[in-house]
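Lecture notes, part 5. Sequence design as translation. It can be helpful to think of inverse folding as translation between two languages: the language of shapes and the language of residues. The source text, in structure tokens, appears below.
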């Protein structure tokens, strides 16, 4: 079994399309949330999620979109117009219903490995699980698979945009595929980050993608998008600073 593991796409259809082209031989695709906001192509992203039958959970930006989509009908002040509003203007009722259909948590088994997939550990926080106690507590609350006794336990998180694996003991770990769209400010790389799960192996992956289309679209919104959000997009989709 070969699984493509994605997270934090953030309306970046360009990077998503590139990764899907690169990883055509996978058996299944999972996404750890945050499909929309900050990027330019929310409808295209959701269309690809449906087309490729990507199994997804909702992230905090997905939830924010569900709320904003209802609120935007009442209008938004010009100086408060952000990417979330840009995205909300593009999506229709069917898109919102599809986004709402994603669960918050998914549990599944692959061989003798149990998995829980959820966007983040704690709401409104970038904290990560550091202790076996908190790992076990989370596992008891969310794992609904069929494995019992001695088996490896893995939690898949997104949210932090930091690709990595954290072991709390020999057979308990959480992993994060990183963001398909952008890095944190302290990470100058601009590639799309993701992972491959192949049998028991976890494979780190990253790939460059063409950003000219994104930058051209971002620049069209100068003077319309709130400057702070515009600066974020220019940083996210600018040239690699390595």
């Amino acid at each position: 079994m070969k699984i493509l593991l994605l997270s934090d796409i953030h309306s970046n259809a360009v990077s998503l399309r590139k990764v899907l082209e690169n990883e055509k031989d996978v058996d299944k695709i999972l996404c750890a949330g945050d499909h929309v906001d900050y990027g330019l192509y929310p409808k295209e992203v959701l269309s690809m999620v449906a087309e490729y039958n990507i199994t997804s959970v909702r992230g905090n930006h997905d939830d924010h979109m569900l709320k904003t989509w209802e609120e935007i009908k009442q209008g938004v002040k010009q100086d408060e117009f952000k990417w979330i509003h840009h995205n909300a203007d593009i999506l229709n009722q069917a898109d919102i219903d599809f986004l709402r259909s994603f669960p918050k948590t998914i549990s599944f088994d692959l061989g003798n490995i149990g998995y829980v997939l959820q966007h983040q550990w704690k709401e409104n926080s970038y904290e990560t699980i550091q202790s076996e106690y908190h790992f076990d507590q989370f596992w008891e609350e969310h794992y609904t698979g069929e494995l019992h006794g001695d088996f490896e336990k893995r939690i898949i998180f997104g949210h932090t945009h930091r690709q990595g694996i954290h072991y709390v003991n020999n057979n308990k770990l959480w992993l994060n595929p990183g963001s398909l769209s952008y890095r944190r400010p302290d990470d100058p790389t601009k590639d799309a980050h993701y992972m491959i799960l192949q049998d028991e192996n976890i494979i780190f992956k990253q790939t460059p993608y063409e950003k000219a289309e994104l930058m051209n679209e971002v620049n069209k919104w100068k003077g319309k998008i709130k400057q702070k959000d515009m600066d974020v997009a220019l940083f996210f989709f600018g040239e690699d600073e390595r």
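The translated text above is only one of many valid answers, since several sequences can fold into similar shapes. Residues 60-71 form the longest helix (12 residues).
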